[in-house]
Amino acid sequence: MxxxxxxxxxxxxxxxxxxxxxxxxxxxDADEIKQVKYGQNNVQHFTFVDSDKIPIxxxxxxxxxxxxxxxxxxxxxxxxxxxxxxxxxxxMIRSLSLQRTLHLSPSMRQ
Length: 110
Known about the structure:
This is Replication protein A OB domain-containing protein. The protein is an alpha+beta fold. The chain has helices spanning 10-15, 63-77, and strands at residues 20-30, 34-35, 42-49, 55-61, 82-89, 95-97, 101-104. The chain is globular, with a radius of gyration of 13 Å.
């Protein structure tokens, strides 16, 4: 699990030109699924904290809510560590959107 970005360094990564980040944390909250008013898209926000207890919002859209969102909710019930790869860093800096891969309870090298 090399190259994980601590949540506190995501603004620096954005300023340095990074468009994505790999993160690891524990989910502490999940909003209800909402329909975006200007379209037929569904959105759900999840709040994570890292080892420094810095919060960040991860947003899932449409069909990702059905599969990855369900897996996140199940992992939260078990207080599982979650690794998400290639999250898009949006303009709000403290918010990410899942685009690629989600690993629940990853095996970590010491």
